[in-house]
Amino acid sequence: MIGRTISHYKILEKLGEGGMGVVWKAEDTQLRRTVALKFLSSETVGNEEVKARLIREAQASASLDHPNICAVHGIHEELGQTFIAMAYIDGPSLADKIKERPLPLDEALGFAIQIAEGLQEAHEKRIVHRDIKPHNVMLTAKGQVKIMDFGLASLAGRSKLTKSGTTLGTPAYMAPEQLESGEVDRRADIWALGCVLYEMLTQKTPFDADYEQAIAYGILNEEPEPISAQRADVEPEFDRVIGKALAKDREQRYQHADDLLVDLRTLAEKQSGRSPGLSGRKMPPQMEPAASDVGVQNAAAASADGTPSNNLLPRRKLHLTSALAAGLAIVLAAISFTHFSEAPIERPVSKWSFTPEALSFFGRSVAVSPNGRHISYVAGPGDQRLWVRDLDVEEPRELAGTEGASQPFWSPDSRFIGFFVEGEVKKIAFRGGPPVTVCPLPGQPFGGSWSPDGESIAFSAVLNRGSRIFEVPAQGGQPKLLFDRMETAKGSYNGEPHFLPSEAGARSLLLRVGSGREADIVLKNLETGESLILAEGQRAVFSPSGHIVFEREGDLWALPFSIDALRPEGEAFPIVENASSPSIAKEGKLVLLRSPDRTLRQLVWRNRAGKKLGVIGQPQEGIDFLALSPDDRSVAVKSGESGNNDIWVHEVERPMKRRLTFDEANDNRPQWSPSGREITYQSGRAGNLDIYRRPAGGTGEAALLIGTEAIDRPYGWSRDENYLLYTADPAGSSDLWYLKRKVDGEGFESFELLATPFDERMPSLSPDGRFLAYCTNASGRDQVHVRPFPSGKTQWQVSTNGGCQPRWSRDGKELFYVEGDTLTAVEVTTSPDFAIVSTTLLFSNPRLSDRVGAVTYDVSTDGRFVMADSVEGAEATPPSIHVVENWYEEFRDRDQD
After folding, report:
1. What is the mean pLDDT of the chain?
2. Burial class (CB within 10 angstroms; exposed 0-12, middle 13-18, buried 19+) of 651
3. In 3-state terms, what secondary structure has residue 277?
4. How far is CA 437 from CA 441, 468, 700, in A?
5. What's phi and psi for 257, nearest 5 deg?
6. What is the pLDDT confidence band of residue 79, given thresholds at 50, 70 and 90?
7. 0.85 exceeded by pTM
């Protein structure tokens, strides 16, 4: 079979074989992707019953769209052979993982939660898997679960898979009712998941035996040995959850996957908050557990080394040993303090830095833990996610499950990291594990902070032509308005909250209040309601040296501050040039982002191979969000050359550029009208991000097209200029909308086009106005889709391996999109309906994926591409993270002069 092409699949290698089928790795020659093909085995080719199971697997899987269920691309019949094409999973099975060792608690819970989430989706569609087991769970390279093999699935309205009603499944994971009658419902899958979780933690099934009859007898008549009797690091709560999943009477079992998920997530949250020593893993010296944890850690280590659990010290003795150790530690600490307190303390200043790949430079993207031992930051490559750099370990750690994360902040005990992603506030243990949702976001995030007592989280959300501060219990719940927006002469955007430490007495927040680049730092006393403007600037944090450290005009400044009086005690002074995003640990360690130098960009033409054909206009700082005019004679861009984001226009035929907007607020996202007479753009001049238009020639006033409480982003007109596509996020996620010209031609009406809990972005209308291309993250990552415009429920997925920035060719025969840093062309037809003909990878260029949300290319009438390239010799250094130990020692003499 290897090397043979069947349909449009080229067979590459054999992946595995079971009693029913054979699975091959193959290349989809049409879409240029790797897939897995599942054929009937040679023994079952003529078996109609087995063939029906294969078809049922395809039908069940194809009806499900969930990141934890393996996607099926299609079912085919070629040369008398029936096979299904499905996503290729480049990773081990859960069974392979379990063979290595019993899994750590947090890892096992993370996998169990993902399996339960996949089952939740299947059960909602009235599909019961019937054969959940470790061999049917695959793991991607990033640890994402993919449930496989729905061949035994019971679909709605069809309960038996064979003419005789033969019981099918794997005995070790079958529920009692499945063994006795073969009749199953969703609770049989819950039983099987309980077995899988038990096996992940013990390396054996709960009713382990040498032959099937003994296994069946155990399932029907016996109770499994509690896991807490086998592992010292397992609390009795695990036994309760697994015991309920394995209740022999299904009426006593979890009735829905939703109920099981609640308990699994609670276990995961409790586990992530326990001492890091409990897993038996070796820790860096700085992270050794407190003396009170030593006994438990040693017990866990003994278990991991294979010592029988009944040889471990009883838990009561462990607790006694821990208490004695803790008392001894306190005595030693007291002696040490008495002996050394009179000696002068040397606090030398030291500085060092590191440069993570694809480090984010937007918002507060770096934070040091309060104990000063870890730095969290947002970086790529690819999807932006959270990373942690332990300061005694050179290599950083990626925190799985945090794709799309932004603006991290630490809990006061340095155990958790809060962050924002996809319309939610989330938290994750700094050592990793499944992220936990704290609450939904009522708007776009604008910074967060954990309260000093660890009980709550304050965060800012942009909505209602400004932003407001909310608070939510750190354990999760519904956010409540902490206080309404404040306003200073600089605006009404209240963001970047930062709790002052408990030494302040009253609960108090530092805030950024303003709009655009203009902002004040305001102190808000939450107990009295009083507020005080401290300084001009943003991103303020408290330093234990007695200062408020903040950013002003691209530099870091420090303001002497009395934590007792909650008042400044002097004038602010600069401390670091060309820096941002300060974060300070309790002992005075300052962590910051070093700004990249401003980069000159040059607009250039490129052909389909990516070859540079010529330059456009003049070099300019910070070119972004580019749009080519309908006559291909001008390019509109956003640039920060003036010190503010404005719209500029570059001429194609001569090296000229001119500024179109002059407002002090930021202007962004230019779009040409089809006639070329006007440019539509986004502006914050009215206190919110609204959509305006003005004549492209620069004369005349800007006119408001739409101003709402949401963030509105324009994305282009229909050729007859009767429709303008835009996105808005009134509920926290980005939705598709359009303006429609009124019948009398006077003004526009607004209509919602597509609103889901996910983000739909970057809409692009086909030249004939019949089809809309856009990207959505409904599948867990951005993919390009097409649907009829303005109405129609049919949709076609265009990209297969992620993609965004869709743009149509001027004749409508091709649809382009960016996958990572690669431009892809899709040949399409739109008559009588939309269809994909072929897909071609054109060229790769790092400028295509400059940052999330940016428009990085456009296409001309003759098929050339315009992009913004770096000017040779003017490339900026990438942003880097800098660490300054004892930052204030450099400035101590300043207060003594």
Report:
1. 82
2. middle
3. helix
4. 10, 20, 49
5. -60, -30
6. low
7. no
Q: Are 147 and 136 in contact (CB under 8 A)?
A: yes
Q: What is the DSSP string of 799-814?
A: -SS--EEEEE-TTSSE
Q: Tell me how far apart the alpha carbons of residues 443 and 460 are, in angstroms, rounded to a whole number.
A: 8
Residue-wise burial string across 195-226, b where 16 or more C-beta atoms lie within 10 A, e elsewhere: bbbbbbbbeebbbbbeeeeebbebbeeeebeb
What are residue 831's phi and psi, to 5 degrees?
Answer: -135, 125
CA–CA separation, 531 vs 395, rounded Å?
A: 43
Cα separation, 895 vs 559, in Å, equals 12
Question: What are the structural domains of the chain?
Answer: 5-87 (3.30.200.20), 94-277 (1.10.510.10), 357-597+879-896 (2.120.10.30), 600-769+846-870 (2.120.10.30)
A 10 A CB-CB count for 734 gives: 26
- pLDDT digits over 646-694, tens only? 999 999 999 899 999 988 778 999 999 999 999 999 998 876 789 999 9
Please give the structure tokens belonging to residue 745. 């031609």
- Give the DSSP H/E element, type plus range, for residue 314: none
- The rounded Cα 38 to chain-centroid distance in angstroms is 32
Q: Which of 489, 532, 538 is nearest to 664 (CA)?
A: 489
Distance from C-alpha of 501 to C-alpha of 191, rounded to nearest angstrom: 47
For residue 614, count other CB atoms closer than 10 A to its CB.
Answer: 10
Can you list the alpha helix ranges (DSSP code H) found in 286-362? 294-304, 315-340
681, 667 contact by CB (below 8 A): yes
Question: Is the Cβ–Cβ distance between 448 and 458 less than 8 Å?
Answer: yes
423/324 Cα distance (integer angstroms): 47
- Rounded to whole angstroms, the Cα distance separating 162 from 175 reads 19
Sheet with 678-683: strands ordered across: 667-672, 678-683, 690-695, 703-706
Whether 396 contacts 386, CB under 8 Å: no
Count of alpha carbons within 13 angstroms of residue 341, beta-carbon side: 6
| Whole-number Cα distances in Å, 207 to 167, 198, 202, 303 | 19, 10, 12, 22
Residue 865, C-beta contacts closer than 8 angstroms, at least 6 positions apart: 605, 606, 607, 608, 823, 857, 858, 859
Positions marked catalytic: 131
Q: Which of 274-288, 365-379, 621-635, 714-728 has the lowest mean pLDDT?
A: 274-288
Residue 202: the pLDDT is 93
| Residue 626 three-state SS | strand
| Mean pLDDT along residues 872-894 | 79
Please give the Cα distance from 539 to 530 (Å, whole number). 20
Is the pLDDT assigned to residue 281 strictly greater than 50?
Answer: no
Which residue do the tokens 């009693």 mark?
19
Beta bridge partners of 840: 825
Rg for the chain (alpha carbons), in Å?
A: 30
